[in-house]
C-alpha cells in the first residue's frame, strides 16, 4: 500500500480536505484506485454529538457512521463509499486501547502512548487502507490520509509520532508527505510572506517528518521568487512547491494541481510512474468551465436553524449545486433563519422579520433541511404553509418532512395543538413520535442511522418518476423521531399521501401532496449520496419544479 499524507500548518481551515480530495481525483485520473482516511484528533468518538455551529455538518455514511464533513468531500470527489472506520478519532483509538487493557490483552504491561496508542493508530490505518471503497475487489493502490488540525497541536502529537513510525516502516517509496500551509500577504506593500510556512515545516521536521511536497494556500498565484524562497528554506525541490490560490469554484483545484504536475511529483515519490497513465480530467474540466460560464440562476430559500454557518448544511448546498449545474443554472441560495419568520420576531426584530418574509416570497422554491431542537420550528412551519398554499415547490428533509406533517395537521385537519413529542412531550395530538428503538439516556450513535431501504407504494407519484420508476430507493438516515403511524389514515384522507414506507410498512419515509406541483418531504437525507455527475433525484426535481420544467422532464424520462 502506498500512502499520501496531507498535514496542515500555520492555521486551521486552509482547505486540507478539499486538497486531499483533489489529490485523490488527480491520482484516480491517472488510472490508480484511491481510498482515503481522515484523522480527527479530538476526543469525541465520532462527530455525532457535536454542534453544527462548532464543527459544520455531520456527514452520514452507508454503514451509519457519523463522521467529519471532509469524508463527504472525499465521497463526492472520488465517487467512493467510505466506512465509519475511515474516520479515525482520538476517542476511537483510546477506546480500543482501553478495552484491550480491561480484557488483559497487554499481559500486565504499563499501557502508554508510545508504543500502545501509536501502534493502535498504525494498525488502524493499515487495516482500513485495505478496505475496498470503489465497488471493486481487492485493496486500492493509494491511501490518502488527511491529518486534521495544525502541526504543533498537543492533541495531534500521538498521530504525528505514529505516522513518523509508519513512514519509516513502509519505506520511502511507499510514503509521500504533502504539507499544506498559508502564504499571507501583509500590509499595503503586498509582499507574500513565507516565514509562517518556514516555521511550520521546521516544527514538522523536528517531529521527524519531512515534507516531499509543499502546497501553499494564497489569495493570488505565488510569485517565482516566493517559490524559490520556500524551496531554499523548507528543503523542498522547487518543482514540488505547489500553489492552490483562490479559484471561482473548487472543481478547479484538481485541474490546478494537474497543471502544476503534482501527479508527477507524487507518482515519482511513490515509484508509480510506470503504473500510472496521464491524468484524464476531461469531465472535471467540463464541469469547472460549465459552472464558470453559467449566467441564469434559480433562487432557493433555505429555511433552517444553523444558517449562521453555511458548513452546517454543506451536503445540501453541494446537492443543490449538482442539480443546478445539471440544468445549466447557477444556484442562488437565500439563507433564512427560521426564527426570523416567526410572529415574535415581528415585535423583537421587525427589520429581520420583514426581510425574511420578503426573501421567502421572492424565492422560486423552498427547502427546509434537517435539524434538532425546537428553536425556529414555528418559522419552518410558516415557510411550509406558505409553500403549500401558494404552490411554491417545497422539499423537506428529515425535520423538514416532520414540519410539513405538523403544519398540515394544524392547518388542514384543524388540530391546533398537533406537534412532535420532540418539541412538546405533552401534546394532545402527537403526529411525530419518538422511535421505539431509540435511547433516551445516550445521545451518541443511538439514532436510526445509515442506508435503509424505502419501498415506493405507487409508481404514479413524482418521487417514483424522478427515481426512474424504481420500486425502492436506498438512502441514508439520521433521525430519532418519526411520523406517528396512528395518524396516517386521517392525514391521507385529508389529501396528504405517504408514497414511500420502510420494509415493515409502518415507518413513513416519503410524503407528497398530489394537488401541489411539487410538495415533497423525505425522512432520509438524499443530499449525502449526491455526486457532481449524478445529482440527487429529489434535488433535481426541486430545481426542475422551481423553473417550471418538471412535467416535461418526467414525460421525457418516462417516455410518455
UniProtKB/TrEMBL annotation:
Its EC number is 6.3.4.2. Pathway: Pyrimidine metabolism; CTP biosynthesis via de novo pathway; CTP from UDP: step 2/2. HAMAP family: PyrG (MF_01227). GO terms for biological process: 'de novo' CTP biosynthetic process; pyrimidine nucleobase biosynthetic process. InterPro entries: Class_I_gatase-like, CTP_synthase, CTP_synthase_N, GATASE, GATase1_CTP_Synthase, P-loop_NTPase. It comes from Phaseolus coccineus (Scarlet runner bean). Belongs to the CTP synthase family. It is an enzyme of class 6 (ligase). It catalyses: UTP + L-glutamine + ATP + H2O = CTP + L-glutamate + ADP + phosphate + 2 H(+). It comes from the Eukaryota. Residues 2-272 form the CTP synthase N-terminal domain. Keywords: ATP-binding, Glutamine amidotransferase, Ligase, Nucleotide-binding, Pyrimidine biosynthesis. Residues 309-543 form the Glutamine amidotransferase domain. PROSITE patterns: GATASE_TYPE_1. Pfam families: CTP_synth_N, GATase. CDD domains: CTPS_N, GATase1_CTP_Synthase. GO terms for molecular function: ATP binding; CTP synthase activity; identical protein binding. This is CTP synthase. Catalyzes the ATP-dependent amination of UTP to CTP with either L-glutamine or ammonia as the source of nitrogen.
Amino acid at each position: 500500500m502506498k500512502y499520501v499524507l496531507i498535514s496542515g500548518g500555520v492555521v486551521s481551515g486552509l482547505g486540507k480536505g478539499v486538497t486531499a480530495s483533489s489529490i485523490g481525483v488527480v491520482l484516480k485520473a491517472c488510472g490508480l484506485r484511491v481510498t482515503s482516511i481522515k484523522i480527527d484528533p479530538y476526543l469525541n468518538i465520532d462527530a455525532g454529538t457535536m454542534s453544527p455551529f462548532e464543527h459544520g455538518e455531520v456527514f452520514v455514511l452507508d454503514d451509519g457512521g457519523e463522521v467529519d464533513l471532509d469524508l463527504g468531500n472525499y465521497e463526492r470527489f472520488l465517487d467512493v463509499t467510505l466506512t465509519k472506520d475511515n474516520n479515525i478519532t482520538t476517542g476511537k483509538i483510546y477506546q480500543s486501547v482501553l478495552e484491550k487493557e480491561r480484557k488483559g490483552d497487554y499481559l500486565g504491561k504499563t499501557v502508554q502512548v508510545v508504543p500502545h496508542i501509536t501502534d493502535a493508530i498504525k494498525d488502524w490505518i493499515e487495516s482500513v487502507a485495505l478496505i475496498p471503497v470503489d465497488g471493486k475487489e481487492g485493496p486500492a493502490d493509494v491511501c490518502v490520509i488527511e491529518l486534521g488540525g495544525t502541526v504543533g497541536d498537543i492533541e495531534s502529537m500521538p498521530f504525528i509520532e505514529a505516522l513518523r513510525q509508519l513512514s519509516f516502516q513502509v519505506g520511502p517509496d511507499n510514503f509521500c508527505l504533502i504539507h499544506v500551509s498559508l502564504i499571507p500577504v501583509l500590509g499595503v506593500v503586498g509582499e507574500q510572506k513565507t516565514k509562517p510556512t518556514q516555521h511550520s515545516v521546521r516544527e514538522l521536521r523536528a517531529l521527524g517528518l519531512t515534507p516531499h511536497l509543499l502546497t501553499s494556500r494564497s489569495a493570488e498565484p505565488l510569485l517565482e521568487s516566493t517559490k524559490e524562497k520556500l524551496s531554499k528554506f523548507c528543503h523542498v525541490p522547487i518543482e514540488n512547491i505547489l500553489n492552490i490560490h483562490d479559484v471561482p469554484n473548487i472543481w478547479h483545484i484538481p485541474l490546478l494541481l494537474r497543471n502544476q504536475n503534482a501527479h508527477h511529483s507524487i507518482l515519482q515519490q511513490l515509484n508509480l510512474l510506470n503504473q500510472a497513465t496521464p491524468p484524464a480530467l476531461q469531465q472535471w474540466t467540463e464541469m469547472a468551465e460549465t459552472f464558470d460560464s453559467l449566467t441564469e440562476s434559480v433562487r432557493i430559500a433555505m429555511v433552517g436553524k444553523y444558517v449562521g454557518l453555511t458548513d452546517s448544511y454543506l451536503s445540501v448546498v453541494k446537492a443543490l449545486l449538482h442539480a443546478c449545474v445539471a440544468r445549466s443554472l447557477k444556484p442562488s441560495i437565500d439563507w433564512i433563519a427560521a426564527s426570523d419568520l416567526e410572529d415574535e420576531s415581528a415585535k423583537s426584530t421587525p427589520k429581520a422579520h420583514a426581510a425574511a418574509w420578503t426573501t421567502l416570497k421572492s424565492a422560486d422554491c423552498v427547502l427546509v433541511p434537517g435539524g434538532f431542537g425546537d428553536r425556529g420550528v414555528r418559522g419552518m412551519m410558516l415557510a411550509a404553509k406558505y409553500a403549500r398554499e401558494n404552490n411554491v415547490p417545497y422539499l423537506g428533509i428529515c425535520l423538514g418532512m416532520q414540519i410539513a406533517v405538523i403544519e398540515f395537521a394544524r392547518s388542514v385537519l384543524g388540530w391546533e395543538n398537533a406537534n412532535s413529542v420532540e418539541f412538546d412531550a405533552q401534546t394532545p395530538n402527537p403526529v411525530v413520535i419518538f422511535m421505539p428503538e431509540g435511547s433516551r439516556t445516550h445521545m451518541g450513535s443511538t439514532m436510526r442511522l445509515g442506508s435503509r431501504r424505502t419501498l415506493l407504494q405507487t409508481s404514479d407519484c413524482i418521487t417514483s418518476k424522478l427515481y426512474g420508476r424504481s420500486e425502492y430507493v436506498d438512502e441514508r438516515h439520521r433521525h430519532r423521531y418519526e411520523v406517528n403511524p396512528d395518524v396516517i389514515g386521517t392525514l391521507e384522507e385529508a389529501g396528504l399521501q405517504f408514497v414511500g414506507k420502510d420494509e415493515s410498512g409502518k415507518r413513513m419515509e416519503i410524503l407528497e401532496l398530489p394537488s401541489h406541483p411539487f410538495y415533497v418531504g423525505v425522512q432520509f437525507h438524499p443530499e449525502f449520496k449526491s455526486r457532481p455527475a449524478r445529482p440527487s433525484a429529489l434535488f433535481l426535481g426541486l430545481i426542475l419544479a422551481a423553473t417550471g420544467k418538471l412535467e416535461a422532464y418526467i414525460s421525457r424520462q418516462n417516455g410518455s
